[in-house]
Amino acid sequence: MGLRLKFNLAMLAVFGLGLVASAYVSYELLQRNARDEVLRSAGVMLEAALAMRSYTVGEVRPHLRVSADEFLPQSVPAYSATQIMGQLRKTHPDYAYKEATLNPTNPRNRAVEWETDIINGFRNDLELKEISGTRMTPTGPSLFLARPMQIKDPACLSCHSSALAAPASMVKLYGLANGFGWKLNEVVGAQIVSVPMDLAIARADRAFYTFIGSLAGVFALLFVILNLMLSLLIVRPIRTMSAAADKISTGSLDVPELPASGRDEVSRLAKSFNRMRRSLEKAISLIDDK
């Protein structure tokens, strides 16, 4: 087995182990980072929904002409936020937004079983500001990010404390059964953004394949460069010395001296070989003279 083959086998083993270790570490890291990035995007959507709710209360509701016989859903912050998020889904179809409520005025906001568990988590711990996690759906695992909806503005109770206090037009539109009995500082629901886990996995996989492809390319380039250096600096000089030694061993002393510039080990070996050749030439010359 030649020196070059031994060197290449050792280098391939080291590169292979390094590539496997890098792949394992980078895959886990990229998966976690992709999940965090998706959740950060979900957090931005929640902030946008909150901003829309505040805008509706401060800028839209005061300018709506509300009659006793007509209730305008556009005056409700939850309605505005949900509609805006619905429009956003046209360009971001993977993200789903819902203001899940235990006792909503609008039936479309009623919490389902898993959403109810999240809301109860917020109700049981008022210091809890955010819940995120993964749940199984018929289409696969899904990420979710949720924040509590707490009644902090007494003005909200004008529509939700009792049916008698609520606008007659709202009661006429939604009925007497839902959306009443809310209390100040009570957690009545949660803002929830859901994202299929496939989105995070797809982002992580793209980054992973790009990274591994780049790393393999760097290893391949390094492999070629090291082979060239090995050939030029070690293998070729040793082969030259080996050929010269073969000729000298057969009695041919007309071998030119080897290049011996430099201070590395190969250069010192070439200098030693040249001294040996000269010494051998002198010894043979002395023998011939006798």
Describe this protein's structure.
By secondary structure, the protein is an alpha+beta fold. The protein folds into 2 domains: 93 residues, Helicase, Ruva Protein, domain 3 (Orthogonal Bundle), CATH 1.10.8; 179 residues, 2-Layer Sandwich (Beta-Lactamase). The protein is built from 7 helices and 4 strands, in the order ααβαββααβαα. Strands 1-4-3-2 form a 4-stranded antiparallel beta sheet. A hairpin with a 2-residue loop joins strand 2 and strand 3. Helix 1 packs antiparallel against helix 6. The longest helix is centred in the first third of the chain and has 58 residues. The protein is rod-shaped and about 135 Å long. It starts with a helix and ends with a helix. The relative contact order is 0.12. The mean pLDDT is 83.
Break the fold down into its secondary structure elements and pairings.
Layout: H1 3-60, H2 77-88, E1 96-101, H3 113-124, E2 131-137, E3 140-150, H4 157-160, H5 168-174, E4 187-196, H6 197-249, H7 265-289
Antiparallel strand pairs: 1-4, 2-3, 3-4
Helix pairs in contact: 1-2, 1-6, 6-7
